[in-house]
Structures are given as C-alpha cells and as structure tokens.
Write a structure and sequence with these properties.
This protein is mainly alpha-helical. The chain has eight helices and three strands; from the N terminus they run αααααααββαβ.
C-alpha cells in the first residue's frame, strides 16, 4: 500500500516539475498571461505535490506513544496547505489580468509552441489526475485526493487558456487575460471545496455518510437493543468509531464480548481502516425492545 501511494505521489512531482518549466519558458517567450498563470499554477502544484509526497510518507506510520491515533492528519493538514497555495495563485492571476485589461496591454505573441505546451499539459494532467484519483479512492487518502484535484483543475484551466490562445490568434488579445480570470475562478471553486473538507477533518467533524452507515449497521443487528453516544472522527485514511450499545442483561460476559467483536467486524467490513470502540451496557426494563433512536 505505502509503495503504491509513494509511487503515484512521486510521479506527480515529476509531472509538475516538467509542466512548470515548460509553461514558464513558453509563457515568457510569448508574453501570454494565460500561459504564465498556468505556469504559476503548476509551480504551486509542484510545491503541493512535494508536500503530498512527504505527507504520504509520514501519514502511514503506525501509532506511537506521542501519537496515539496515528499520523493520518498530516494528510489533512497537507491538503489545507495546498488550499492556501491555490488561493495565492488566484490572487496573483486576478491582479495581473485586471491590470492588463485596464491598461489595455493585452498583446501577446501566439506561436505553435503556445498550443503545444497547453495540449501537452492537458494530456499529462488527465493521466496524472486519473492515477491519483484511483489510488486516493483505493486507500482513502485526502492528500492524494487533493493532488488529484490540482491536476484535474489544470485540465479545465488549460482548456480555458487554449480557448484564449485561439481567440488571440484571431487578434482578440484581451481573450488571454479573460482566460486567465477564468482559470482563477476555477481554482477558487476547487480551493473552497478542498479547504472545507480539510478543515472539517482537522476539527473532527463527523462525516455524515459514515454516521448514517454506522447507524444502519447497528440497527440491522438483532443483538443490539439500543445504542447511543455515537462519535465518529477521521484522521487521514483512518476512521475512529465510538458507541454505547445496550444488550440483553442476561448474557454472559463471554457472549457480550463475542457480540462486541461481531459489531466491530461488521462495521470494519463496511468502513475500511476503521477502529471501533464499544461500551456495552445492560438493556434497562424501561426501554422498548429493539428501539433504535438516532444514536446521538
């Protein structure tokens, strides 16, 4: 698992380095703000990819005395850092585009290399975003998911720049700056979604889909008469579940232990890389049998 995650993260770094250098050279030669904005975007992607690579190396380390719940949140922190890098990109792109549009200095040199760099960027971005997304879903890695979002954002932004270059080739040079603003809007949208998800995890917000899944699982188990105080948090790829369950008071300690093990296995089969903590209590006479409230 660790090797596959590291490999896909490492190749993302190489792809980002190549794209940044290629876009920067062509952007400077042509004066295209669209391509230069893409170069800056890719440059920050390169920094983000390096951060992702090292966060993936650290996040899968086992829990220790200082980090009882593992090191998974380094991935969430990495994703948040990437969000700020994307926002910095947007500020520069919007500022530069507005200056050019206001002053009228929108003329650029459009050459065959302008189109080559954008087309190469789209092809590489499609390949890397798919690979990152596949591994991110496979191992529930938010750091790789953030990196995949970066590359998928580049696909759309490169498409906008490509359209701007076509317009500029017909003499509509202002289209390049407008395309740059389009890139900024796309990046802002992705940044918001990525940042919100990262902050939610760092603040231990319970993921609603996981909460619903655990409730459904407990409700389907006949042995569980009642459950409450359900608490769920995530850390990187790991999910921690804590819940109080009410069982038949006449059960032996051995039977209670077996039922708790069964609950843990059932939840674990539905939520990969989960740790489940169960506090078993005897069902009180006042409770109606099989009553399953919302669990909170």
């Amino acid at each position: 698992m660790q090797k596959e995650k590291l490999n896909v993260a490492f190749f993302s770094v190489l792809a980002a380095v190549f794209l940044t250098g290629f876009k920067l050279v062509i952007g400077l030669l042509t004066g295209s703000l669209g391509i230069l904005s893409e170069a800056l975007h890719s440059g920050l992607d390169m920094v983000a990819a390096v951060i992702t690579y090292f966060s993936v190396r650290v996040s899968d380390k086992p829990a220790d005395k200082q980090h009882n719940f593992g090191h998974g949140k380094i991935e969430n922190f990495s994703a948040l850092v990437e969000t700020f890098l994307l926002l910095i990109t947007c500020v520069w792109i919007i500022y530069e585009a507005m200056i050019r549009l206001i002053t009228g200095k929108t003329h650029i040199e459009v050459s065959i290399w302008s189109f080559i760099v954008v087309i190469c960027s789209i092809i590489i971005d499609i390949s890397r975003s798919r690979a990152l997304s596949r591994v991110a879903k496979k191992y529930n890695s938010q750091a790789l998911e953030a990196d995949a979002l970066h590359f998928s954002t580049d696909i759309w932004s490169s498409g906008v720049v490509f359209l701007g270059l076509i317009c500029a080739d017909f003499g509509f040079y202002f289209a390049d700056s407008v395309a740059a603003l389009g890139v900024a809007v796309i990046v802002l949208s992705v940044s918001f979604r990525l940042g919100k998800k990262s902050i939610d995890v760092l603040l231990d917000k319970a993921p609603q889909d996981t909460v619903d899944l655990v409730k459904k699982t407990l409700s389907e188990m006949e042995e569980v008469k009642h459950f409450h105080s359900l608490k769920i948090r995530t850390s990187g790829a790991d999910t921690f579940v804590k819940v109080n369950v009410h069982l038949d008071p006449d059960l032996s300690l051995r039977n209670v232990h077996e039922i708790c093990d069964k609950i843990e296995r059932e939840i674990g089969s539905r939520i990969k890389r989960s740790e489940v903590y169960i506090h078993a209590e005897p069902q009180e006479q006042g409770h109606i049998a099989n009553e399953k409230p919302d669990g909170l």
